[in-house]
């Protein structure tokens, strides 16, 4: 997982401002109904999930899932526009009941939107959003989000994910409570993801071996292969590379930003 640097919000998302005001007014007038589920918000997917929003996120995230770093636009891995803070309902963990409503006032907030593969979003994270102190959870637009202490990483937050999650070979491990929670909630060590990273790791290790052999046995033909291998290794740690965080730790380098 690497930090996402997002540009300005696409203009099309501005249409959500009026809807947010309407939702906030509706909540203030019918708070009990929204909290017991009698009334529910009807969010406009065609706004927060508009093609322009998806396009800007795709570019900012280099075509990768904001969590697992898998290529989110492959035919076999469709992507969702994910709400970091869940918009409809929210749960502290797997065992907790759903709290109504979710972070409805952030449904069209640019800071709350990312592109996420469907497995990370629908199978793993879903509406789970743990806080260090659940009693401080913001329940409406009138509350202060700054008082929350999330126990799941914000892909585009101020905190670099690499301060919390690192890799031993293809296995993700947490350096902090937030990192460990993120790995568990997102399923960053789920079998199919581990297999994909293992395949990537094996390829990079082959390239490393080529470079090593060339250094020990100088030869024009080996030198050419080693140059190609070195270029592959350099590309593996770039932001646009799939599983670049794993590659950085495997190769023990830090890429230029």
Which descriptor suits the 3D outline? Answer: elongated
Contiguous uncertain segments of 5+ residues: none
Sheet with most strands: strand arrangement: 1-2
What would you report as the Rg, rounded to the nearest angstrom?
21 Å
Structural class estimated from helices and strands: mainly alpha
Instruction: Give the helix proportion (percent range).
Output: 40-55%
- Summed over residues and divided by their number, the pLDDT gives a mean of 94
Number of strands: 4
| Percent of residues in β-strands | 5-15%
What does this structure look like?
The chain has 257 residues and is mainly alpha-helical. Helix content is 40%, strand content 7%. It is built from 9 helices and 4 strands; from the N terminus they run H-H-H-H-E-E-H-E-E-H-H-H-H. The chain has helices spanning 16-29, 31-36, 45-48, 51-60, 118-125, 177-186, 191-216, 220-236, 244-251; strands spanning 79-83, 113-117, 165-168, 171-174. It has a two-stranded antiparallel sheet. A two-stranded antiparallel ribbon has the order 3-4. It is elongated, with a radius of gyration of 21 Å.
């Amino acid at each position: 997982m690497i930090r996402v640097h997002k540009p300005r919000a696409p203009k099309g998302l501005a249409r959500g401002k009026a809807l947010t005001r309407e939702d906030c007014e509706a909540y203030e007038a019918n708070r009990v109904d929204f909290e017991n589920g009698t009334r529910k918000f009807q969010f406009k997917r065609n706004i927060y999930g508009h093609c322009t929003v998806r396009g800007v996120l795709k570019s900012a995230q280099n075509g990768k899932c904001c969590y697992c770093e898998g290529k989110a636009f492959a035919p076999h891995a469709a992507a969702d526009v994910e709400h970091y803070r869940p918009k409809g309902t929210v749960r502290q963990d797997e065992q907790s009941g759903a709290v109504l409503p979710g972070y409805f006032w952030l449904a069209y907030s640019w800071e709350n939107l990312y592109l996420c593969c469907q497995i990370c979003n629908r199978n793993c994270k879903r509406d789970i959003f743990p806080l260090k102190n659940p009693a401080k959870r913001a329940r409406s637009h009138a509350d202060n989000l700054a008082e929350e202490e999330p126990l799941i990483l914000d892909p585009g937050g101020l905190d670099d994910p690499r301060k919390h999650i690192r890799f031993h070979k293809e296995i993700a491990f947490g350096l902090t409570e937030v990192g460990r929670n993120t790995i568990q909630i997102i399923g960053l060590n789920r079998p199919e993801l581990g297999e994909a990273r293992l395949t990537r790791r094996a390829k990079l290790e082959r390239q490393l071996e080529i470079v090593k052999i060339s250094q020990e046995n100088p030869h024009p033909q080996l030198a050419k292969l080693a140059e190609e291998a070195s270029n592959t290794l350099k590309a593996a740690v770039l932001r646009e590379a799939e599983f670049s965080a794993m590659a950085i730790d495997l190769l023990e380098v830090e890429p230029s930003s």
